[in-house]
Amino acid sequence: MLPSQAETWGLVVNEAMACGLPCIVSDRVGCGPDAIESGVTGDVHAMGDVDALAALMTQYADSSRLVAMGQAARRKMESFSVEAAAATLLDAVETVRRRAS
User: Fold this and answer.
1) Domain 11-100 of CATH type 3.40.50.2000
2) pLDDT tens digits, the chain, 101 residues: what are they?
3) What one-character-per-residue DSSP string does 28-51 give?
4) Could you give the CA distance from residue 4 to residue 44 in angstroms, rounded to a whole number?
5) Full-model pTM
């Protein structure tokens, strides 16, 4: 859980997900849109909405969902590797090169 008021990225979320843990983050955590798929790898709550956060925490008390969500979180983080970033960068450079030709 990272219910922060302001977090540029929230690297701890990447680390937790790479270890197979789903995450709950506030909508002020930068990695939320990229890393969190609601109900699949975790959830995002509106910062300051304590009732929404409490509801998510209650849902997560049902451990039957957590194993599958943790596996999905780990798979999601596989796309955040150095290799994946390099491949994406190469694709972008190739796209720009083709457009310039």
Assistant:
1) yes
2) 999 999 999 999 999 999 999 999 999 999 999 999 999 999 999 999 999 999 999 998 877 889 999 999 999 999 888 888 899 899 999 999 999 98
3) TBTTHHHH--BTTTEEEE-TT-HH
4) 11
5) 0.82
